[in-house]
Amino acid sequence: DYDMQDKIDYVFKVVVIGDSAVGKTQILSRFAKNEFCFDSKSTIGVEFQTKTVTINGKVIKAQIWDTAGQERYRAVTSAYYRGALGAMLVYDITKRQSFDHVVRWVEELRAHADSAIVIMLVGNKGDLEDQRVVSSEDAVEFAEEQGLFFSETSALSGQNVETAFLKLLEEINRVVS
Ligand code: GDP
Question: What is the pTM of this model?
Answer without folding.
Answer: 0.93
